[in-house]
Amino acid sequence: MVNPEDNTTASDKSLEAMRHFSEQYAKRTGTFFCMESSVTAVVIEGLAKHKDELGAPLCPCRHYEDKEAEVNSAYWNCPCVPMRERKECHCMLFLTSDNDFACERQEISLETIKEVRTNMG
Q: What is the pTM of this model?
């Protein structure tokens, strides 16, 4: 999962871009966010950090030997291939309605994401 010990924070621009993307993708695919909003917030923050650092929203919940090579292969860039092909999201960002952890939300505020960031810091 995302490493909460990583003290760098995403830029507001990337954070808002990933928040907007996540909401739109959930609505378009009929998927939902996790009932625990901190999970959603932490994953969006991780995607935004990777967007800032690597230029692409590489899945933040996996370990990579070479992040640049992974970005170039695009397999784990969000939405990753397993998500696009089978609606399988390792990060629990996009959950199908039959998932025990899914709620009915497809939206999260920037304020909620920043609040989770502050509380984890």
A: 0.91
